[in-house]
Amino acid sequence: xxxxxxxxxxxxxxFNRLSIWMQQCYCGGFVEFLEGQNSMVLTACQKCExxxxxxxxxxxxxxxxxxxxxxxxxISHIYTHAEFNLHVMASLLGEYPNGDLIFADGNNDNEIxxxxxxxxxxxxxxxxxxxxxxxxxxxxxxxxxxxxxxxxPTLLHVDLDGVDETFSYRGIIGISKNIHVTESNQLNxxxxxxxxxxxxxxxxxxxxxxxxxxDNVTIHSEDGxxxxxxxxxxxxxxxxxxxxxxxxxxxxxxxxxxxxxxxxNTILHAKAGICKIVINGDFTIGSNVSFLADEGAQIQLVxxxxxxxxxxxxxxxxxxxxxxxxxSLNLNSCSFDxxxxxxxxxxxLVVNGCQFYGASLxxxxxxxxxxxxxxxxxxxxxxxxxYAAHLSQYPNFYIHQNQFELNSNGIGLFHCGSGRLNRxxxxxxxxxxxxxxxxx
Length: 440
What we know:
The protein contains five helices and 40 strands. Helix 3 (83-93) packs across helix 4.
């Protein structure tokens, strides 16, 4: 097939980034037909050269075993890898077929970019170094070679710096080192992107910078803890997926002075591991937002901002935990299902018409004589392991017209009631291990 014919076929494929490796003889002649924006082409030789087998010689001219012997039914078969393929594949695998370990990771980020593969080949290919009979050709108009690997079509390992610039990426993205979105810049991860935080790296959004996670973006940690740290602004699209390997965590941390916007009907989904949204700054959570976790995973919304009153309407927590120490929090028509529930401290809490299934409410440390917990308007608690509603050291409480059924224990009041506004009335309390416990 002619290079022009191959190019015509390939150009019919839509792509964000394209990396082409060619080993065949005369492959350098394909470069002028394939090169272009967001494309990187790497060939074994020039258009007038043959590409040959590995020559069993190292860069110092000494004999070196590069061929591979496989014995089948007692019969030895010798496979002679091509010189180019031998080195580029070894750069990715970290070893040669003979088992000798190699190191091609020039910037020490545990990922091999296309540029690092090319550099390793040029440093070890003896048909290029010693005889000059096989001279590799490469083309990279857009300078993507340092930011692309076979596993991650986009590989980010340096700060996104500029002045009022917007950086947009889609597809499979690896972040292999701590990187900053610097002041005045914006980073967009586009619809359906999968972003992997590698080597316990952090994505840090600086003050006055913005991170936009468009619809159905996935944030994934391959090893240990992966953090997205926001000192500027974070906007989340219609859904966000989070996942960490066993024993790991994904943390979205909204620091003081920064802001988080979660629109109406957004779905935040923990697919594996512990996934936390930790809010120390300002936030807006729309109506009908869902915080969901698959079996074996957990999602946590941690509001660690004792600032002004907040209201959460019609939110769904499944295997989810809401923790808050705000001055005032109103929960209206929210549901908490399958473990987790609400842990609240210090402020005024209102639970209005909420449903708890296998989940519980715990409120503690309302030291101020005016602090109060209100649970009313047909809130229901079913199937909790332990106390369905556990209040500790709250001066005031109002628990009125709710249902407590099939829990290990219904209501627990511990060191509560030192204020003047205390009432437990008109509740349906049945089929619990213990209905009400009062300890003072």
